[in-house]
Amino acid sequence: MIRPLRRKPLHQAGRTVQGVELPRLEEMVRMRAGFARVDITPPLGSEIPGQFHRRVAEKILDPCTITAMVLDDGNMQVAVASADVALLGVADVAEARALIREATGIPDTHVMVHTTHTHTGPQTLNIFWAHPDMSVLDVIRRQFAGAALLAQRNLGEADLSFAHGQLPGIAFNRRWELNDGTQVMHPAKDDPNLVREAGPVDETLCVMGAWRGANTLAGSMLNFGSHPICVGSENAISADYCGYARRAVEGIYPDSLALYANAPCGDICQINVRDKSVMEYGLYWARRLGSIIGSASCRLLEEAPRKSNPRLAVDSRVLRIPVRTATPERIAEAHDILEHHEQHTELEKLYAFELVELMEETGASPQVDFEVQVMWIGDTALVGLPGEMFSEFAIRIREASPAAHTFIIELANGWHGYVPTRHAFEGGGYETWLARSSKLVPEAGDMITDCVIGLLNARRKVH
Predict the structure, then answer these.
(1) Are residues 150 and 65 in the same domain?
(2) What's the number of domains the chain is made of?
(3) Contact at 8 Å (CB) between 354 and 330?
(4) Which in 181, 238, 438, 463 has the greatest CB count within 10 A?
(5) Model confidence pLDDT, tens digit, residues 380-395
């Protein structure tokens, strides 16, 4: 196994040696950054996730990739790797982290493994009748390590810049309240029962740039939240708008690589229910959304001040979050539906199957280990959360965060299903239906938000 050369920590920095005061660490060592990208495009005929029914790829619209970033402040290294995959289970993340550690020497706790949540990428989980191709999944896990190793080999001195701003009018809440008090996902635009959006939208765009010299961008990270469902139900492989956002930045800075990290968007997408003149599905909308995010990111990157020596730190905490349980009567009903399946709809059979599978998986210990991870880069925080978080939680975290810039990255280090608000549970709808895709208790979002804010306030600033 190839071991990378790493700089030793400068333990003597800031000390007086033979009457001479040595420069402090931050005065001696500049940040180093490296980026790399590898391909994970599945072959034609592969299963595609993102729908209630089984789909297979009939064409490839654009490639699916893993983009990795490694940072080194002279004392520690951290890695962020983002894959054009819908979901990745906790066990698969653990294996990917282990492979990254073996390849790079970076500890598991200093690695963030993220999936963009494209609904037209490789199938990686057993859910909703779908079955992953284990050979494709094995390639993805190994390619995480390959991308991280290449990024580490590409380390070079860099000034980092951070910025955030608002990007209104391109992402919308996909859940609506009806006049009977219930809530639905993706309602028909002409439904006369629509009252209002069921929740807010976090329109924050965060960007980070790594610069070599005055005008050379080595790499960047973009953080904005919207469900990657533009390509829709087409039987095709695509990174969706996330890929177009990356390419928009790389078109302006052709020697750079852009990493896209989706912000909380469990209830957010590109469809504006109030606009009845269009239906925002198709490749055009993926290009449009990605281009808007990418061009806005470039403007922020150009204006942001640069820092040559921010310090790194990592904090994490594992929450034990209970899983919702079903009554014995509901479980018996699910088994009856599966036994007499010809008498029931496809949706009824699907959720009966999901309920049975969930109860078997949780068994006698109905709770999950939910990892909350915070990476500090100077006074900027990267928050990683392994769930499909509702946008309201991102707003609450940003409002309470002491960080100068707070990147909030969902589907980081695994997937524990949707994390709706209590208000969403009161109204019902797809994201709250008990299944492997929505299993945590209604108070989970508040528990996670409080934990994140506590971790952020415990380490207000890292110099």
Answers:
(1) yes
(2) 2
(3) no
(4) 238
(5) 999 999 999 999 999 9
Query: Averaged over 447-463, what is the pLDDT?
Result: 85
Side-chain half-sphere CA neighbours of 363 within 13 A: 3
Query: Tens digit of pLDDT for each residue in 304-323?
Result: 999 989 999 999 999 999 99
Is it the case that residue 10 has pLDDT exceeding 50?
no
Q: DSSP label at 434?
A: S
Is residue 351 within 8 A of residue 433, CB to CB? The reply is yes
Instruction: State the pTM of this model.
Output: 0.92
420: pLDDT strictly greater than 80: yes
Check: CB of residue 405 under 8 Å from CB of residue 381: yes
Residue 374 shares a structural domain with residue 330 = no
- 8 Å CB contact between 307 and 370: no
Q: Going along 18-73, which residue ranges are E strands?
A: 20-21, 32-39, 47-48, 55-56, 59-60, 65-72
Cβ 51 vs Cβ 233: under 8 Å: yes
Question: For a pLDDT cut of 90, what percent of the chain falls above it?
Answer: 81
Pair 229, 348 in one domain: no
Contact 79, 151 (CB under 8 A): yes
> Quick one: 314 and 269 in the same domain?
yes
Nearest Cα neighbor of 375 from 123, 161, 111, 17 is 111
Q: Both tokens of residue 406? A: 């707070």
SS3 at position 280 = coil
Helices 328-339 and 346-362 sit at what angle, rounded to 10 degrees? 130
- Within a domain: 12: no
From the list 405, 417, 406, the residue with the least C-alpha distance to 370 is 417
Q: Shortest CA distance to 453 belongs to which of 321, 322, 320, 315?
A: 315
Domain-embedded: residue 121: yes
Residues 312 and 332 in one domain: no
- Amino acid making up residue 283: L
Same domain, 288 and 403: yes
Residue 184 maps to a domain: yes
- What does R_g of the chain's alpha carbons equal in angstroms? 22
3-state helix, strand and coil shares in percent for the chain, rounded to the nearest 5: 30, 30, 40
Q: Are 104 and 122 in contact (CB under 8 A)?
A: no
DSSP codes joined into one string, 168-222:
TTS-EE-EEEETTS-EEES--TT-TTEEEESS----EEEEEEEEETTTEEEEEEE
- Name the token pair of 262: 């989706």
Q: Tell me the C-alpha distance between 175 and 428, whole Å.
A: 10
Instruction: Give the Cα separation of 69 and 339 in Å (integer).
Output: 49
- DSSP-assigned states of every residue in 109-176: GGEEEEE---TTS---S--TT----HHHHHHHHHHHHHHHHHHHHT-EE-EEEEEEEE-TTS-EE-EE
Q: Which domain holds residue 355?
A: 326-362
- Beta-bridge mates of residue 16: 21
Other CB atoms within 10 Å distance of the CB of residue 2: 7
